[in-house]
Amino acid sequence: MKNNSPKNHRNSTLFITKNQIDPFVSIRSSITENSQYWKWGDDNLFPYALAMLSRRSTTHRRIINDKADYISGKGISYDKTLPALAGTVECVNGNGESLRQLLNKLAFDKSLLGNAFMEIVTDEKHTFLSLFHQDATKCRLSKDKNHVIMHHNWAEYSPAKAKRLPIYPRFEKGKDRLLRSVVHYKDYEPMFENYGLPKYIAGMNVSAIAYKTDKWNISRLDNSFQLSGIMVLDADIGGDTAQRGGKIRRKTRTGDVPGQRCGRERKFEIHPDIVGQRRRLERPPLSGDDRYRGRALVVQVAKRARLFDGILFGKDT
Fold first, then answer.
1. Residue 302: inside a domain, yes or no?
2. For residue 81, is it within any domain?
3. Sequence-separated (6 or more) residues with CB below 8 Å from residue 124
4. Which of 5, 25, 100, 153 is the most exposed, fewest CB within 10 Å of its CB?
């Protein structure tokens, strides 16, 4: 018997469209059951979804890459007569990264995820300064909002494998006796206090349409513009007719039909009064002009959602 007492009941509100839950507009408590960190998204895997989207949509990925390159530029101008400053710009950490490379990674994370994390390392006497980029998908805010928790896989979180660093301006000494802190950059968004949202949040569905359009076109090319399907046998068919239908099904599965990929099935109907005759069911094809216009519109909306035109080309947004 379920316990429906208010103490164990968690209220949540979801916006449902066509019997599907939209994970990007769900409203519920963002604190986890173990109360160690604040969730980033409904399932705490929202950064993973954004990163996956950027690897699928060509237009979306190109805009993110160009914005990061535009922000970081070709390099940092500095006075070469100052050796300490020159050393920091040319080699900002022990990994041999330049300050420009570090800024490019931070700009990429902030453009893609709306958040970026940079680790600061120094000693008690401040004799040196090292700056490291931290992958934002691996970072979450602690419950007290004074620390950043880093974990390699948040789908299988283990406190024993997590790393905690204080948020700037707090510093804490590690096992190597060095002082460390993390700077958290985030885009402001109402109702989102712990994590920022990327500027293109309103255009996410447009980016999804762009990559799904590419996927659909590739599927049409793989199938030689012939639809895949299944064999439909009438319940009253028996004897030789059913056996003949079985032969047709096996033939299509082996890929003997010209222009059809092996392992795909085409759809036929076999009628009791017309033994041996076949009829292929197809939808009317979409013209090339319609596909081109739809694709161009998606690209235009994707650019406007990211303020891409105004930033790089000086156009009104």
1. no
2. yes
3. 173, 179
4. 5
